[in-house]
Amino acid sequence: MQGVVFTGDRELALMDFPDPTPGFGEVVLEMKASGMCGSDLHKYRQSKGFRQATGIAAPPTPTIAGREPCGVVAAIGPGVDARLAQVGARVMVHHYQGCTTCNHCRTGWQQLCQKSAVTVYGNNGHGGHAKYMCVPANTLVPLDESLSFVAGAAISCGTGTAYGALRRMKVSGYDTIAIFGQGPVGLSGTQLAAAMGARVIALDISPERLERAKAFGAAETINPSNMDAVAAIRELTHGEGADLTLETSSSPEARVAAVQALKVWGTCCFVGEGGKVTIDVSPDMLRRQATVIASWTFSTPGQAECAQFIVDRSIKVDALFTDEWRLDQAAEAYALFDQQRTGKGVFLL
After folding, report:
1. Where is the Enoyl reductase (ER) domain (predicted)?
2. What is the pTM for the complete model shown?
3. Is 342 helix (H, G, I), strand (E, B) or coil?
4. Alpha-carbon distance 273 to 73, whole Å?
């Protein structure tokens, strides 16, 4: 089979790999959809030879990209509980594997494992940008028959990440939430928060993305490139600020603004990966009783809960995707995605 591999300096290659065979406790999936995640761009843009000290296991070389896998079980290895996997089952993948036995792993938070190096599929373990993918059976999350494989791919990372953050902030119909960045995660946040009843203020420097946010339920949109975002949010909230803010872009300026735009007793959540932020603690946090939290993706129960929420409310997650690609179009696909002006892309296999 062939798989997409990031080779550095915004280049990639379609390389040959042997078809995987499941080992003990593993399954092989026939991929149906593999989404393009904003976090992919970190590896896509890396300089050749650069290795970031992440504290997770060193990746095999080369490594297949794709951390939003969705497909059907094609083969089952020895030792797999039939309740976890059956041939032909439609499944998503929770794309992490830790020690499997610590408290974090046992509650579905394998990415938080403190006992062993964590495998992140699509990063330091083979991901979904290929015809087949081999994963431990304990990473599988069922995909409801009413959901497309494309929707399942979104839930497997970007949409699931937004849902996990919104649930941590306990979003409700009483809240006004400002969502900074309307890329795949931010736009998912806009769609889901609106479905939860919140009033959404969407922010982005791309007019195209702001138009999409409006279509996905944003009550108001703000372009920080041509106005003061914090002042605009306060004007829209009777001078008080937003109850909640969600920062998805990783921009240092956006992170500061997300904290400053809070009302007294408000909560800000960071989900954008990487980068640094400097906050003036007294005026921006301490004297407004602000809460600042971070949310890293979701658990396996959280992924299943997100999928059920989408099913129950008939949320059109498929509409997140603006571009569908074949694997042999990967170079074109990531060159477009790298511009960060359009919506989400997905490889159909």
Report:
1. 8-347
2. 0.94
3. coil
4. 31
